[in-house]
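Re: that backbone. Tokens:
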């Protein structure tokens, strides 16, 4: 719903894939989630739901570890969100990520990106013109596996997301149960 200024509230939820395994002889794109990643990805999904940020659309890297993160995270929601697997998210830098985000239909209010570092961390820091100081400090320090950042801004459409336009509302690193 647009405000009197014609600008709609928008949220970009950024999720770095969960911890991956490093099996010998497996190409990077095909690396699966490690046991820790299989525990943390559902925790990320629960954190997204608890924050009221279940996406209207998700864009997910085609890498096995990103797809596994998406599947385990989204399984925590009452209703599945539409997802588009996008090979451009694998290894994307900030300009590429912004190009992908800006293709999002105007009717989408909350968009989830599931991808990789260093691109995601740099994207969060690039588009955040301010926000929660502790969250900004946390992302500047490290955006580890399963890290989750929520950026907000008002715009007519997703093309309005430019460097410095958003506020970093939160940054967390959900972790799953560590008991054996």
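Recovered sequence:
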């Amino acid at each position: 719903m647009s405000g009197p200024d014609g600008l709609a509230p928008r949220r970009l939820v950024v999720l770095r894939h969960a911890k991956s395994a490093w099996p010998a002889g497996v190409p990077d794109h095909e690396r699966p989630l490690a046991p820790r990643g299989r525990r943390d990805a559902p925790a990320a999904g629960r954190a997204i739901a608890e924050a009221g940020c279940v996406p209207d659309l998700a864009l997910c890297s085609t890498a096995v570890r990103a797809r596994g993160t998406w599947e385990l995270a989204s399984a925590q929601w009452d209703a599945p969100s539409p997802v588009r697997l996008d090979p451009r998210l694998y290894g994307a830098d900030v300009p590429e990520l912004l190009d992908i985000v800006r293709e999002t239909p105007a009717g989408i209010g909350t968009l989830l990106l599931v991808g990789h570092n260093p691109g995601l961390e740099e994207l969060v820091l690039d588009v955040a013109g301010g926000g929660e100081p502790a969250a900004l400090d946390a992302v500047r320090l490290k955006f580890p596996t399963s890290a989750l950042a929520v950026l907000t801004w008002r715009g007519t459409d997703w093309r309005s997301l430019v460097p410095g336009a958003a506020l970093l509302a939160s940054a967390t690193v959900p972790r799953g149960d560590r008991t054996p």
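Helices lie at 35-50, 64-74, 94-102, 119-127, 133-141. The longest strand covers residues 8-16.
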